[in-house]
């Protein structure tokens, strides 16, 4: 099986297992609903950062594609870490705004950079 597929399935299975374990701990009275939410969404942010870290390590042909991969990787790592940090430390209402905004900003940076590279290639 493909290494990337195995890693993705491991992250997905890990988050499902974490969610189930957190739900069990909540049902047993060890943690509350907010802590369960913070655990699962914090892990989701770490997953985004992990995927962003893997982006520049894949093979592509062409210098511009490598540049796009580096910028996309950095933007996803940073936005994933901000997302995870927001759900660990900020109040839930603010965490949703900050974390969601970080992910949207990371995607906008990646898409904007790719479009700017595309424009540079067309004008050259």
Summarize the structure.
This protein has 4 helices and no strands. With 124 residues, the protein is mainly alpha-helical.
Global Rg: 17 Å
- Please report the distance between the alpha carbons of the first and last residues: 41 Å
Q: What spatial form do the alpha-carbon principal axes imply?
A: elongated
Give the integer mean of the pLDDT values. 93
- Can you count the beta strands? 0
The number of helical elements comes to 4
SSE string:
HHHH
**Could you estimate the helical fraction of the residues in percent?**
over 70%
Biggest sheet record: none
Query: What percentage of amino acids are in beta strands?
Result: under 5%
Low-confidence stretches are none
* SS content category: mainly alpha
What layout of secondary structure does this protein have?
Blueprint (H helix, E strand, L loop, with lengths): L2 H25 L5 H22 L8 H27 L2 H32 L1
Structure in words:
The protein is mainly alpha-helical. 85% of the residues lie in helices and 0% in strands. 23% of the residues are buried. The mean pLDDT is 93.
